[in-house]
């Protein structure tokens, strides 16, 4: 009887937690998506705004230099608080990240949005919970639930968002104890955005594809491409970040210099397609990659690594989606395979390899593209993840997996 009562209390708590954080996540996603849509549209309508990117970088740099020493750790700070709850997620993280991401997109830095959405939602949720002095375990559940709520709202993937939240914090372990509130929060965040008619990434539904032997070897090759891209993205972003800290001692100057480099990249590449979110490139990849440069995925990777590595704010997920879709489309063209199929699978496999979240990537892919290509999608995501090694875009992600040498005696 006592255990039944205790379990009932846990279920009620999980339900309340999921609903409250889901509403917060849905509200954040709505305000964030509307603001970033305005920022990107305004930049496209007023082309001269990109020339102020170095100045925008200086503003962001000054903001973080004076007010955001801990905030600068971004999503890694949220993961660190899940592992070992401490001082908490700073309240100022929400307004700072919101403003800095909007500025980054308005003036053309190549950044995403999911990392910022996670940070904003976690900051608000953690701040609201602090007066109640939650236990360390409750705060862990709260932050995992916040990740799910942000994903559900921002990308329209309530189940995938929940699985991502359970999987991303520790490579090799899924936090089943947070499953119920995470799912509730993801669904509510998603439903809020759907009810307000906010558009997500334009993808499409894949037709049924059987996993034949001729297709399998092509998918293995695609896995290698996606894995290599993920590793290249992680390494280049790290190199840029380390070089910026080594060569530029004054923090506010780093994103200002990064803005100058991005403008130089625009000049060298001869296009502004790689600025901002660049969702039109992914849409072009799904449509057959007609008119898209062969090396577009490499350009987008460099633009994003320079932007994030020097201190512009946003996220890695959308850029990785686009890089993977572009590379997948070109790989499909070279191998004589379906370009939309390879674009969709390349999109998810690249993210799986970079984030160490293969299960979440498969589920997100199913929600975005339907179950028609489930087996090819699963095979490529898992092989790409296996090829990429343990290093990922979130350096605070723990690794619970044993090596074979340590597990076999």
From TrEMBL:
Gene Ontology CC terms, in alphabetical order: membrane
InterPro entries to which the protein is assigned, alphabetical: Cl-channel_core, ClC, ClC-type_chloride_channel
Compartments, record wording: Membrane
GO MF term (any one): chloride transmembrane transporter activity
Spans traversing the lipid bilayer: 12-33, 49-67, 141-166, 219-240, 252-269, 281-302, 308-327, 334-353, 359-387
Keywords attached to this entry: Membrane, Transmembrane, Transmembrane helix
Name of the protein in question: Unannotated protein
